[in-house]
Amino acid sequence: MYELARRTSGADTVVNVAGVTIGDDFVVIAGPCAIEDEMQIESAARGVAHHGARLLRGGAYKPRTSPYSFQGLGDRGVELIAAASRRSGLPAVVEALAVEQLPVLAEHVGMIQIGARNMQNFALIQAAARTGLPLLLKRGPAATLDELLYAAEYALLEGNPHVVLCERGVRGFDAHTRNLLDLAGALRLKELTHLPVIVDPSHATGRRSLIAPLVAAAAACGLDGAMVEVHPEPARARSDAEQALDLDAFAELMERLAAIRPPKVASSACR
Ligand code: PEP
Ligand code: MN
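Above: the input record for the complex with manganese (II) ion. Below: its predicted structure, written as tokens.
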């Protein structure tokens, strides 16, 4: 049994990412799939901060299916998102693909993401946990909820309690959506664990038209947040262009969300 991750009679965990809490109010994490250049990440950061995102995402080391696809800017990408993070005031969330990337991430970002493909890379999870930074652990595309919770347990056993779980879609049989967003599974996770649970409808659906309604659904059913891909010019995105929202669409998403779940504290940019 996942003794540390399982729900008990105690309070739910609230994870603090450089001053932004996840687990007490619905939090939106937004930004491009990949950091591409200084202008792109600066403009994404400024835009999503203005519309109420609380954390900035961006991939520097990209886990691409094809080795011929854009692999990310690597360490340089981390430096660029760290600068955008300082200017926008949004802590950065960046994925680690390998243990060697952890020192640079630990120096520059607020939260380390363990991607779906690495959900059972236990050595990476343990090393990431030992940085002491909060972790965003994504569910593998064919992982059961118990397997996800056991993966989280590896981090908790390292003495790092700051773990957020992310449902990002599981493999389905219909090509109309990239994956199946398992909302019921995400809700079931909330019954099983005290850790915060968020969703990623961008990677779950692969379609920009479906993202806002699913973020709204996640908020309406009591989940803890959502991660969405936003690009200042989606047509030019070097990865996951079809699922990238532009800043206007992101603004609409945030308005729709406020109608369902008014933010407890308006972000400074919206005051
Ligand atoms: C990502 O969030 O950049 C990503 C690659 O997602 P996933 O690991 O869920 O496929
Ligand atoms: Mn992506």
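Notes for the reader.
The pocket of phosphoenolpyruvate (ligand 1) is lined by residues 33, 59, 63, 95, 115-117, 138, 168, 200, 203 (CB under 6 Å).
The domain at 19-260 is CATH 3.20.20.70 (TIM Barrel).
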